[in-house]
């Protein structure tokens, strides 16, 4: 800074500008401190980079893996699709998946093709599923159709299916008889309850009618008896 006085009494102040050193710019450090605050869903993998005051959200959606039975259905491999949903894990954990596949095969007119041409072991797995779940009211309608198809295909040569399959056919017939007997019992009980409810309603209606037919107080006071 230079300060100088002039002859006319003024003071001149001048400041010399310093040369700014031009060097390599420092690279700002990338931080991942607040990554978790910008993750909207756990089904995607996100990388959040905060640099120079700007927030950049990069999302990479994960690819959903196609199930085995969907792959076989897409290729019209109905038998393989049915085998894939008859595994012990799916049958025990998610039996509705197997029933849904039966329903889809029926809709595609491919149920008979998926059930036909099976050996004793693969047929036994289908019969075992029918025996276990045909009494479940959620699956009864679909599984009855499957059981009818199985009987139509293998009914004429049950002896060729093997001893295990024959025993399962006997168990299936016994299960169906039990379900039929249970249905008849429930229908009888429903009919008896309807009769009781109808009798109760009729009794209340007659009581109300008798109450409306009672004479009023004025009629009771002015009672006239005609004797002829």
Automatic annotation (TrEMBL):
Domain U3 small nucleolar RNA-associated protein 15 C-terminal, first and last residues per copy: 53-196
Keyword annotations: Nucleus, Repeat, rRNA processing, WD repeat
GO cellular component, one term: nucleolus
A Gene Ontology biological process term: positive regulation of transcription by RNA polymerase I
Lineage: superkingdom: Eukaryota
Key word Transmembrane present: no
Protein localization: Nucleus
Pfam families per the UniProt record, alphabetical: UTP15_C (PF09384)
Protein name: U3 small nucleolar RNA-associated protein 15 C-terminal domain-containing protein
Lineage, broadest ranks: Eukaryota, Metazoa, Ecdysozoa, Arthropoda, Hexapoda
């Amino acid at each position: 800074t230079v300060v100088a006085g002039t002859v006319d009494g003024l003071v001149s102040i001048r400041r010399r500008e310093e040369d700014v050193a031009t060097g390599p710019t420092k690279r700002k450090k990338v931080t991942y401190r607040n990554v978790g605050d910008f993750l909207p869903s756990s089904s995607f993998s996100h990388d959040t980079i905060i640099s120079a005051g700007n927030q950049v959200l990069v999302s990479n959606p994960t690819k959903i893996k196609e199930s085995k039975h969907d792959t076989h259905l897409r290729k019209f491999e109905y038998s393989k699709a049915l085998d894939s949903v008859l595994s012990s894990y799916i049958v025990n954990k998610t039996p509705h998946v197997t029933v849904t596949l039966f329903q889809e095969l029926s809709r595609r007119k491919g149920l008979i093709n998926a059930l036909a041409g099976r050996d004793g072991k693969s047929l036994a797995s289908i019969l075992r599923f029918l025996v276990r779940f045909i009494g479940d009211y959620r699956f009864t309608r679909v599984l009855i159709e499957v059981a009818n198809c199985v009987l139509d295909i293998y009914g004429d040569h049950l002896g060729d299916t093997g001893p295990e399959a024959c025993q399962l056919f006997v168990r299936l017939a016994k299960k169906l008889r039990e379900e039929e007997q249970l249905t008849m019992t429930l229908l009888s009980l429903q009919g008896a309850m309807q009769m009781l409810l109808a009798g109760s309603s009729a009794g209340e209606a007659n009581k109300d009618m008798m109450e409306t037919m009672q004479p009023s107080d004025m009629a009771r006071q002015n009672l006239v008896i005609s004797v002829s």
